Amino acid sequence: MTSKDELFKSLVAEHQEMVINTCYRFVFNREDAEDLAQDVFVELFRSLDQFREEAKLSTWIYRIAVTKSLDHLRRIKRKKRFSSLKRIIGVTDPTEEIAAPGNDNPADALVGNERAAILQEALDSLPDSQKTAFLLSKQEGYSQQEIADILKTSVSAVESLVHRAKKNLHNKLYTYYTEH
Amino acid sequence: MKKYDENIEKEVSKTLMLLDDMSPLELHQQFRVRLMQRVEREFGEGRKGHFTSHVDFRLAFMGLLLFVNLGSAALTLIDGARQTTATISELLDNQSFDYTNQDLAYYDQAASIPAVTETNQTP
Prior knowledge:
The structure holds 2 protein chains of 2 kinds.
Chain A: H1 3-27, H2 30-47, H3 57-89, H4 114-124, H5 128-138, H6 144-150, H7 155-179
Helix pairs in contact in A: 1-2, 1-3, 2-3, 3-6, 4-7, 5-7, 6-7
Chain B: H1 2-21, H2 31-100, H3 109-121
């Protein structure tokens, strides 16, 4: 086993829970979070040689996790847009008719939960920086400084982003519940 | 109206509370096994392939260098041999030229003189 393999194994052991939970905050789904976490570590393995110690290794890993999660959300958004377009033109996708998995697993309690869907919709409408700052601030284990490092910004900018995210979320949810 | 607002606010805070109530995920026991299998699948072969292709490239390059070296050596040898052959044939030619040249072929002079006289007499 090479020293790279050993380093990789120790990094996985050290950061796997944090990475999975970070992805989970973004996607609200255990399976997707695990798949994304795998992608994060595969990416880590691929580019471990290129890591320059400009930032902490943990910050770098969590930044990859955030980027992968945001990419995943963007993909879902595109897919949704595309399927609604298909619905308009009258083409149906058989995969859409397959029932969503149930939430027997307590960790998947958010899947199929209407309130969670509303929250996710509101979160999706936020700009990426606000969404990231807000979601990371809600997760245990991230200090303000670490969030600032992940976002490559200052602590005061993070505070401002979180504040704006809270305000925007509140407004969006308020509007939603007023209309429904 | 105030009650209506209060209800909405309650709904909003209930929805936002979901994020605070999200319990951390327990790691699946197979997560690391699957991850290592994937890394092995994606990079194990890749690393092997990378190594062999690296070796192949080096071997091919060495082969090319050897070919170029041998080729240039062969060219030099062939050229040298051609030059040698040329020198020998030149020597032989020169030698034969020395003895068969018309200028020096004084022993044929008698035969050639009448022809010259003939040509001189024609006009």
